[in-house]
Design goal:
mainly beta; Antimicrobial Protein, Tachycitin, Chain A; 3-stranded antiparallel beta sheet; 3 helices; 15 strands
């Protein structure tokens, strides 16, 4: 009998080391009475997004709720108010689930979280307090909702290839009737690109080259404006008749500045 009492004492002292997870048959109220120091936190028995905080004045367990979409992470842990994204703490975990109902807004299933884009595999939504911000995955990665992060395309089988990239899954694809814009396909998904100033897409080489060398994209010719002939001095005004004043002659226009021509060194290779 003394052996069982010694084992029970060890278990009681081990409880706070694991977030104070209540053991079977032990309520949060009892845990707070055993930990009279105020501010002690314990997770809820059934819901990831609720937890208990011990009141130092009364010894009661006060139920607290995480912001909508977040789950209890532990004292002074997580993103905000002791809470973090559920997938970071492994919720649901087979025994506990989210207890609150989603408070959805535009693009956000919950007030806080990371959510997939409805039509794009390379973008996703980051929601904070119900406000959504569009995010773009780094080059050659796709958003994987299973891990709530950007991942290699081979790990995102549910994302179908875009028709624009069906023949060229990786590389540039010209846009009809456009000299400066083109699609860059990465893993079967297009991203809109633009050539630098003075360059145009060569549909043969699929590179940005001097616009003057790309048929149909040559810049319009510029005709320099000739200098105006100098006019002679204006006749002297009749000082006796103030009402007949002659306009001042126009000054000759100086030479036009040289036209900008991109040098061959300005060509940027794409792809």
């Amino acid at each position: 009998m003394q052996f069982h009492s010694f084992t029970l004492t060890i278990l009681v002292f081990l409880v706070p080391l694991v977030w104070g997870q209540p053991r079977a048959g032990q309520t949060a109220q009892q845990l707070c009475r055993n930990n009279p120091k105020g501010g002690t936190l314990f997770p809820h028995e059934d819901y990831c997004d609720y937890y208990y905080e011990c009141d130092s004045a009364t010894g009661d367990a006060v139920l607290q709720a995480c912001p909508n979409g977040l789950a209890f992470a532990g004292s002074k842990r997580g993103l905000i108010q002791n809470c973090d994204y559920p997938h970071r703490i492994g919720c649901p975990d087979g025994t506990r689930v989210m207890g609150q109902q989603p408070a959805s807004t535009e693009n956000c299933h919950w007030q806080y979280g990371v959510f997939p884009h409805a039509t794009s595999c390379t973008r996703y939504w980051h929601c904070w307090n119900g406000t959504s911000t569009i995010q773009q995955c780094p080059f050659s990665l796709l958003y994987n909702d299973a891990i709530h992060a950007c991942d290699w395309p081979d790990n995102v089988p549910d994302c179908q290839k875009h028709p624009i990239c069906k023949d060229v899954p990786n590389g540039p694809v010209p846009i009809e009737k456009s000299c400066v814009r083109y699609w860059l396909c990465v893993g079967g998904y297009p991203r809109l690109q633009r050539c630098p100033a003075g360059l145009a897409v060569n549909p043969t080489t699929l590179r940005c080259e001097l616009a003057s060398t790309v048929p149909g994209c040559e810049p319009p010719p510029t005709t320099p404006q000739p200098d105006e002939e100098e006019e002679g001095p204006a006749p002297a005004s009749n000082s006796g008749n103030s009402g007949n004043s002659n306009p001042a002659p126009r000054q000759p226009q100086g030479p036009l500045p040289p036209q900008f021509r991109p040098s061959q060194s300005g060509v940027r290779q794409v792809g």
